Amino acid sequence: MTIQLNALNKVYSTPSTTVTALAPTTLTFTEHSFNIIVGKSGCGKTTLLRLLAGLELPSSGNIAFENPNPKIGFVFQEPRLMPWLTVTENIAFGIKNKTTDTGELANTRIPFLLATLGLENFAQIYPSQLSGGMAQRVALGRTLLQNPDIILMDEPFSALDYFTRHGLQQTLLELFQKERKSIIFVTHDVEEAILLGERILIMQKGSVTSDISVPIPYQRDLSSPLVINLRKQILIGIE
Ligand SMILES: Nc1ncnc2c1ncn2[C@@H]1O[C@H](COP(=O)(O)OP(=O)(O)OP(=O)(O)O)[C@@H](O)[C@H]1O
Ligand SMILES: [Mg+2]
């Protein structure tokens, strides 16, 4: 689903200060695309995601979605699971009481997600028994089960160790290649941006200052000259 930002702007005012978290920003996110937003702490990444999710109202400007009322999934830095529900129940959380064919969900979609996310053997386990990486896989499954048009991800893997993060990046790429959701993924990890993004937007102090297309096929080799150049371009852009 195409998303158009029109002079989208967010200013936070407190009695003592005014912060422009997002300066007026006009850009388009195209359908089925993997977008990365990268930038230093405080540059406005979360603000942009929260505006997209409708968790904040813009100070001025607007967001136009191709279709009204798009389904938007949000994956946070921490998994936010319900401790009293099993892995399967957590994934199904939020969809149970809707008029959905729960038979199809239980028989097909949930097993597919458990398998794709490497959670088959954890289906009946409770969150307290999961590692951080496994818990984040459950959070991803819960979002994917909602079948969102757009998935917003705010540093979803940043609390994980290198190897766990790498595993989750690969899983997310596989899912993206199978299902081609529109993803807007915030990170401050340059390597993660390079491995995942079809397009990398760099933010600095509330503005999108670079917009880089990445026409490099997936399973990107971090030592290839194209990728090394891209890394330089990003590092210069972020400064
Ligand atoms: N509710 C709020 N009230 C006042 N200021 C805010 C609020 N939320 C964010 N800000 C300010 O807006 C700016 C952008 O914050 P934001 O959380 O979007 O940054 P970020 O790029 O996500 O940073 P990080 O990488 O640390 O998560 C910061 O200066 C922050 O202090
Ligand atoms: Mg943030």
Summary of the model, kept short:
This protein has 239 residues and is of the alpha/beta class. The chain has helices at 45-53, 87-92, 102-116, 132-145, 162-179, 190-196, 225-238; strands at residues 3-13, 18-29, 34-39, 60-65, 72-75, 150-154, 182-187, 199-204, 207-213. Strands 5-6-7-3-8-9 form a 6-stranded mixed sheet, with helices on both faces. It has a 3-stranded antiparallel sheet with strand order 2-1-4, covered by helices on one side.
CATH topology: Rossmann fold
Rounded radius of gyration (Å) = 18 Å
CATH superfamily: P-loop containing nucleotide triphosphate hydrolases
Mean pLDDT: 93
Strand ordering within the main sheet? 5-6-7-3-8-9
Percent of sequence in beta strands: 25-35%
| CATH architecture annotation | 3-Layer(aba) Sandwich
Structural overview:
The protein is α/β, with parallel strands linked by helices and about 240 residues long. It starts with a strand and ends with a helix. A hairpin with a 2-residue loop joins strand 8 (about 200-205) and strand 9 (about 205-215). It has helices at about 45-55, 85-90, 100-115, 130-145, 160-180, 190-195, 225-239, and strands at about 5-15, 20-30, 35-40, 60-65, 70-75, 150-155, 180-185, 200-205, 205-215. The protein has one domain: 3-Layer(aba) Sandwich (Rossmann fold), CATH 3.40.50. The model has no long low-confidence stretch (mean pLDDT about 95). The chain is about 35% helix and about 25% strand. The site of adenosine-5'-triphosphate (ATP) has 12 residues, from strand 2 and helix 1.
